[in-house]
Specification:
This protein is an all-alpha fold and 224 residues long. 75% of the residues lie in helices and 0% in strands. GO terms for molecular function: DNA-binding transcription factor activity; transcription cis-regulatory region binding.
């Protein structure tokens, strides 16, 4: 026979699920909370920030906050996911022409380099690196929804270019990883570790990406 405590616990879970489902129908409130969390994480840092800080910044009650997000880890993940959805929608529109891989990769490489060296991306990477040993799931989720997704997207494009006869690649996943590294070579880590305070200028990004495309096409391009 089930105890009253068990029944109460189960009912709490059911109600909690219902509350969260209902809350999901109010995107403006969710955005209000995310905006508050963004402000708090940006000013205090993930480790120092608390859910109470988010409550104050978002101007919501603590009970409302917990209906939408159970923890600041959930909040951080939601912020990253939202930003990445916008980015990947934009990137997906680039990979439509397998007939001209050099130009496609040049456009993609520029967007990638600007994204990886942006203040938001640098801050997010530093945050995850700082907590990953005690929060490995956060690190895994961060990688799967960002770098791994980018690799899969580029791999699919390279497969289409190989099928079109404009590239010759045996391992397209490896090639995708190589291009991503090449497009940010020498500029991303400088930002990540604070050696370079600001974003690289347009000329530096262009020089880096042009070299990446040239080297990639030398190795994988089809010779006329």
């Amino acid at each position: 026979m089930r105890s009253d405590d068990q029944s109460g616990s189960d009912m709490s879970e059911v109600l909690d699920h219902a509350d969260r489902a209902t809350a999901g129908e109010k995107p403006t409130k969710r955005q209000q909370i995310l905006a508050g969390a963004h402000a708090v994480f940006s000013s205090l840092g993930f480790d120092v920030a608390s859910m109470d800080d988010v409550v104050k910044a978002a101007k919501v009650s603590k009970s409302t906050l917990y209906v939408y997000f159970r923890s600041k880890e959930e909040l951080f993940t939601a912020l990253i996911q939202e930003e990445r959805e916008r980015y990947f929608q934009e990137i997906g529109a680039i990979f439509t022409d397998p007939g001209h891989p050099a130009e496609t990769l040049r456009i993609y490489g520029g967007k990638l380099a600007r994204k990886l060296t942006s203040p938001e991306a640098v801050r997010a990477n530093r945050t995850v690196i700082g907590v990953v040993e005690r929060m490995p799931e956060l690190g895994r989720s961060f990688y799967e929804s960002g770098p791994q997704r980018a690799i899969k997207l580029l791999t699919a494009y390279l497969d289409s270019a190989v099928a079109a006869g404009t590239l010759r690649i045996e391992d397209t996943e490896l090639a995708a990883k190589q291009f991503i590294e090449l497009a940010s070579a020498g500029i991303m880590r400088c930002r990540l570790f604070g050696y370079q305070a600001g974003m690289p200028d347009a000329a530096e990004i262009e020089r880096t990406v042009d070299a990446a495309v040239w080297l990639f096409m030398q190795g994988y391009g089809t010779k006329a």
